[in-house]
Amino acid sequence: MKKEKDFYQVSLKLLLKNKKGEILALKGIDNGSYAGYYELPGGRIDTDEFRIDFIEILKREALEEMGNSDFKINPKPVAIGRHLVPASMTSLHKDTHILIVFFEAEYFGGDIKISDEHLDHKWFNLKEIDLEKYFKSGILEGIKMYLGK
Known about the structure:
- There is one protein chain.
- By secondary structure, the chain is of the alpha+beta class.
- The protein has helices at 54-66, 131-134, 137-147, and strands at 8-17, 23-28, 38-39, 42-44, 70-85, 96-109, 118-124.
- The chain is globular and about 55 Å long.
């Protein structure tokens, strides 16, 4: 029996670190796939961005989700994860599989002004919290890989 290849959307996420070593996390909206949990700044690659540099896509997403902040992205990915958006939450009414690629970035300053895609934001020391309490799915998977857990 021939196996069917899976199709993934690709999401790029920032592990944005402040001077204290804390990571910026964005609280998921109540009707989203991260409801009740936090995720990270970033998002999926748009269809017209196939030839655009990953760092430029991340900068666009960060501007949309957290306002005009000063940061520098390390262009080498630091972790990966997988996230499932259930069919009940998609316009096509089928499960959407997302591959998340994580990049580390250094935050220098600026006011964090979140978009309506999130409810709140918080800086976390990832080594001092119960990760499962705040993160799930591909974000949790990527953070654990990043921390070497």
